[in-house]
Write a structure and sequence with these properties.
The protein has 241 residues and is α+β, with helices and mostly antiparallel strands. Among the domains are: 89 residues, Ubiquitin-like (UB roll) (Roll); 75 residues, SH3 type barrels (Roll), CATH 2.30.30. Helices cover 21% and strands 25% of the residues. A hairpin with a 7-residue loop joins strand 6 and strand 7. The mean pLDDT is 82. One of its GO terms (molecular function) is alpha-tubulin binding.
């Protein structure tokens, strides 16, 4: 009898959120053979939480709790994680609070003095042509930003739409807002879904952008929204067994 093996990817793509902010970090790629202890060290650099005190919880892309990553010696791949899920970091964020604190006087260099330093972050980026110092990447970033703006400006409020996001079924709804959102990067489209499949009621960080019932509203990137003739689907519950 032949032996069969289940082959899985060596990496998993996960979103990161924290108990300090109501903002998701962009999706990050993690190797499955990394220990939870090493994972927390990476999350410390990203979030400003302490790897020694943080707790990490996993959620599905529709915000259902999956598990706690509470065994520091375990491998990330030993937990039931899939692409598109979210890791939620819970901590007091003392490291970040200290960096953000304005109570203590800060040592500052002039622009001229900083430019002369060979061990600065800027010098590292320039030497390795990273970030804004990579001309090709910078041009690509500017093109994508302009394209996102164009898509947002051509998305008409009141239009019917279909929202397609990676690792999630498509959702139908109505465009309620298109533009900038305070505290979030780039342009966004606010959608009222036909079903309670969203995350809010049109409010983000205390500011209302449109009206809809709770859990019917969502903000998605313009490239995930296709406007067109998408009539509401008829869900006849009497036909279900």
């Amino acid at each position: 009898m032949a032996d069969y093996k289940i082959i899985t990817a060596d990496f998993v793509n996960l979103h990161i959120s924290t108990s300090k902010d109501d903002i998701l970090f962009s999706e990050k790629r993690f190797p499955k053979d990394i220990s939870i202890s090493d994972l927390k060290a990476k999350l410390e650099l990203m979030t400003g939480g302490s790897c020694h005190t943080m707790q990490v919880e996993a959620y599905t892309n529709d915000n259902k709790f999956v598990c706690k990553l509470d065994n520091n010696d375990a491998m990330l791949g030993s937990y039931p994680l899939e692409d598109g899920m979210r890791l939620h970091v819970i901590d007091q964020f003392q490291i970040r609070n200290e960096l953000d604190s304005g109570d203590e006087p800060k040592f500052e260099l002039s622009e001229e003095e900083y430019s002369k330093k060979s061990d600065s972050v800027r010098a590292f980026l320039q030497k390795n042509k990273l970030g804004k110092y990579n001309e090709d990447n910078q041009k690509k970033k500017e093109f994508l930003e302009e394209e996102e703006k164009r898509l947002a400006e051509t998305t008409v409020v009141g239009s019917r739409c279909k929202v397609t996001v990676t690792n999630a079924p498509h959702r139908l709804g109505t465009v309620m807002y298109s533009g900038l959102v305070d505290g979030l990067p780039g342009y966004w489209v606010g959608v009222k879904y036909d079903e309670p499949l969203g995350k809010n009621d049109g409010i983000v960080k205390g500011k209302r952008y449109f009206e809809c019932p709770d859990k019917y509203g969502a903000f998605v990137k313009p490239h995930n929204v296709l406007c067109g003739d998408f009539p509401p689907e008829d869900y006849d519950l009497n036909e279900e067994i």
